[in-house]
């Protein structure tokens, strides 16, 4: 999350008009992910910050939905992996969620009306993100897809991060629980680090 614009807790409460109590009640109900509460040292001591775009979008959704739903019902709607969301293959491309190039390469046998689960769509979405950024080749995308399909489900919706490491032309992908800290050997490059909770949130926002 280091590349994201952050907002302090004080500024967040002032901007949104919510109270300290509401914020932490929503946290306890898992409406706001634990990993979004980022502790940082400042000249006044330790302060809490949040990824600005994600927290603002999430609070807006909560405020818009809380009049009609209980907090427990909201938690179901905002669950880490929304099982109720399914997407057609052709819809993914039509809405520019995933590029046609990626789907032609990795889903050529699936008809346009093939239905993907949210988790399947997420795997394509993450791969497409790295391809569009020019950080990954199509061959490496296959490695990523295989890694995600084999291991992502093992986290059972708990926060995790994807690490993309390359050394002397050899690529490695790994998934790790979040928050965590990794150190790579000399000569190895951390090409990308993605919070999959952020990827889920971004994909959900594109679908609503």
TrEMBL record:
<dbReference type="Pfam" id="PF13171">
    <property type="entry name" value="DUF4004"/>
</dbReference>
<dbReference type="InterPro" id="IPR025063">
    <property type="entry name" value="DUF4004"/>
</dbReference>
<protein>
    <submittedName>
        <fullName>YhbD family protein</fullName>
    </submittedName>
</protein>
């Amino acid at each position: 999350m280091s590349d994201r614009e952050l907002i302090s807790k004080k500024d967040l409460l002032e901007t949104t008009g919510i109270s300290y109590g509401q914020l932490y009640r929503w946290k306890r109900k898992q409406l706001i992910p634990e990993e979004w509460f980022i502790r940082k040292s400042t000249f006044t001591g330790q302060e809490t910050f949040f990824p600005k775009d994600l927290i603002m979008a999430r609070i807006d959704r909560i405020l818009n939905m809380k009049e009609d739903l209980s907090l427990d019902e909201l938690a179901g709607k905002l669950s880490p992996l929304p099982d109720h969301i399914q997407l057609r293959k052709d819809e993914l491309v039509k809405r520019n969620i995933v590029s046609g190039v990626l789907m032609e390469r990795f889903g050529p046998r699936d008809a346009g009306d093939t239905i993907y689960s949210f988790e399947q769509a997420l795997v394509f979405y993450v791969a497409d993100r790295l391809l569009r950024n020019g950080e990954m080749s199509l061959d490496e995308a296959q490695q990523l897809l295989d890694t995600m399909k084999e291991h992502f489900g093992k986290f059972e919706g708990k926060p995790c991060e994807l690490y993309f490491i390359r050394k002397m032309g050899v690529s490695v992908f790994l998934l790790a629980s979040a928050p965590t800290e990794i150190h790579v050997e000399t000569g190895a490059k951390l090409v990308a680090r993605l919070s999959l909770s952020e990827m889920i949130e971004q994909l959900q926002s594109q679908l609503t």
